[in-house]
Amino acid sequence: MPQNIDIKMKVSTLLLASVVLLPMTGQAHAQQDMNKRPALVITNKAMPGSEITPFYNRPTRTQEITPQQLIGDSYYQPTDTVVARKIGELRNDLFSLQSNVERLSGQLEGMEKRNQSLSAEYFANTATINTQLQSGTTPGNPRLVQRLSTAQMNLDGLSRNVAELNTLAVQVANSASMASFLLEAARSTYGLSGAVEEDHARLSQLEDNINNQIVTIDRLLNAVNDNITRTAAYLSSERSNLRTLSLGISNGDLYGRSLANRPFSSVPQSGLMQPASVGGPTPLPMQQETRPSSPRPLAKIRFDKANVDYEQPVFVAVSEAMERYPEARFELIAVHPTTGNAAQMAIESTRARRNAEKVLRTLTQMGLPSNKIDLSYNADPSVASNEVHIFIR
Hints:
393 residues, alpha/beta, Methane Monooxygenase Hydroxylase, Chain G, domain 1, CATH 3.30.1330.60, 2 domains, five-stranded mixed sheet, 5 strands, rod-shaped
């Protein structure tokens, strides 16, 4: 038994000794290796493949991108974007606007042709009337009356065309507003996100088309307004001429243009203007001045017989007076005698008033504005018959 114990103690001592000696032995070997191997080795030999770690495998080579791949079909694939859908809506609105403008342009062309036809027919009728009056004709010639009626119908047709032109102008103005709206919508579409290159290219083309359409609409609107202004002025002038022409047909005499169409500007004249005196022996001179200063009448019409042909000399006298004094007014004074009893004076006064009103109607038919004419009455013991005196004020 004691022998076994001794053996176990010897084994334990040996194991402990071996444990203590092993670290000392490894340290001695490491010291020995450091002494044999250098700390830094410089050489031009390649490193063994086994010593290259995965960290040194970068950078890796990427796939090469060719220009064909960049500009080819693979990049420009059809893309349904929000901007593309907006461009489609704007393009449809533009097509609708172009169709509407083309329709309005066709209407204007048709109206212009009708105006030309009506104007040509009107001037053909008035030229026939003036030619016949110049050659000499009977008062109230029914052939000329028929021509006058046709000319009046031509002017009525032109008046209806003016109303249609006004309606057309409103429609063209609405188209102009629509074109301006489309242009602003196209320009604001550039700011939308999510567009591709093709969208902006199409948007630029759309913007140019809208600008071209705006130019077309502006020219169409100018043409309509010019037609309205020109036709309205033409109607105003020719209606006055037609009233004067109607008076000429009634009397079988030619007067010329209406007094309303005389140029309202002072025209220098040479010599003196002689006032008309129908039935009077002595003409009264009127000096050329900016304002009339003589109280003598411009024309004196004596109604001493049933039919007094006073229209032509009165027309000439008033025309020349308007050329000399554009801002002048005219005063008609009905003068009646004071001889006889009260009943005869009342009858003559009534006749004088009627004669003055007749002269007033004649002057308005000649084109003299009624707001430039004043009417008054007076009794004069020096006259032997009813008279109408025309003064320029």
